[in-house]
Amino acid sequence: MSRKSQSAANVEVAKNAYKALAANIGFTSIDDPICTLAIVSSVQSEGKTTTAVNLSKALASGGSDVILLECDLRRRSLAGALGIRGRRHGLYSVISGRHSLRESIIKIQDHCYFLDAEPNIPNPADVLQSKRFKALLDQLKGTFQYVIIDLPPIKAFIDGAIVASIADGTLLVVRQDYTRRDDVRASYGQLQKAGANVIGTVLNCTKAEGASKYYREYREYRESDNGDFGMSPLQPNGAGSNYAGGQVPQFSLNTQTAMTQQQAAMPQQGAVSPQPQNQQRYASHASNRR
After folding, report:
1. Reported pTM
2. Which residue has the higher pLDDT, 211 or 167?
3. What's the CA angle centered on 82, arms 122 and 202, to 5 degrees?
4. Do 111 and 63 meet the contact criterion of CB atoms below 8 Å apart?
5. Does the N terminus or the C terminus of the chain have fewer Cβ atoms within 10 A?
């Protein structure tokens, strides 16, 4: 198989996987809907920004109104991942009352919007635990079905735990063969202490050769049997959606199952790949991770 065909198959697998994750989030919150969703990781380069971007797009493609918030105030990256230039005013201007949401948000695609943050915001943790920030989240909940919040790594800063404690739900991104077991355990423990509702994990950067082969063969069958129905290779949008290399994340809901006693008893050295038992997993991919 050519490299181009492999890349197209990986992208198709990825898009379907993020749609599956979006659907699962909806299934877990039928009785108590999740609107504000914090996306966190233990350390840098695990793919949380990529997850936030592609999950937002998947939710929007299903018809839900979504806004993506840049809340990593120390190392902003969402605008770059989206391939756009942020405005001069953003999160800080809105919560300080200098500009309105209408003046500050940017439309990414149908049903999907983005609120950037200004550079060099002083005292990020104080800003994120302020009453005005919470009031902003409440305002957004009245306008959008989903508010996706990208946050700094839990191990590096307290910001992620602060916002996770007031968000309706939290996803913990874990990169396979990269994140240390102790870091995942410590991050999950910190989120629990903060009172965060951790609804699941995203096991990132795993192989999906089987899934890619299935989608490739399925597409070849359609084109040979019924003709080309106008299907074209899916192309990534922005740096945050670059699915090269054939490595993909798997999504597993219910982190409580992932942090089992069996995993706690595993050796301390090496990396961790939490995979909850009896949970359906889905494959996807992203590079340029953080």
Report:
1. 0.73
2. 167
3. 85
4. yes
5. N
Look-up of token digits 């903060």: 194
Residue entry with tokens 């307290």: 158
- CA dist 284 and 249 (Å) reads 5
Q: Which residue has the higher pLDDT, 219 or 19?
A: 19
> Which residues is 170 bridged to in the sheet?
38, 198
The verdict on residue 273 lying in a domain is no
- Would residue 85 count as lying in a domain? yes
Task: Determine the Cα–Cα distance for residues 137 and 139; give it in Å rounded to an integer.
Answer: 5
Q: How far is CA 192 from CA 76, 163, 188, 197, 256, in A?
A: 26, 13, 6, 8, 10
* DSSP characters over 111-152: TEEEE---TT-S-HHHHHTSHHHHHHHHHHHTT-SEEEEE--
- In angstroms, the CA 113 to CA 57 distance is 9
DSSP state of 52: H
Given a contact cutoff of 8 angstroms between Cβ atoms, the answer to whether 285 and 243 are in contact is yes
Interacting residues of 12 by C-beta distance below 8 A, sequence separation 6+: 215, 219, 233, 234
DSSP 210: H
**CB contact at 8 A, 81 and 288:** yes
Residue 171 dihedral angles phi and psi, to the nearest 5°? -110, 130
The answer as to whether 189 is a domain residue is yes
Residue 286 lies in a domain: no
- Given a contact cutoff of 8 angstroms between Cβ atoms, the answer to whether 252 and 203 are in contact is yes
> Each residue of 92-137: pLDDT tens digit?
999 999 999 999 999 999 999 999 999 989 999 999 999 999 999 9
Q: Is the pLDDT of residue 208 over 70?
A: no
Number of domains in the chain: 1
Residues 62 and 109 sit within 8 Å (Cβ to Cβ): no
Domain range holding 195? 3-228+235-259
Name residue 165's amino acid. Answer: S
**Cβ-contact 223, 28 below 8 angstroms:** no
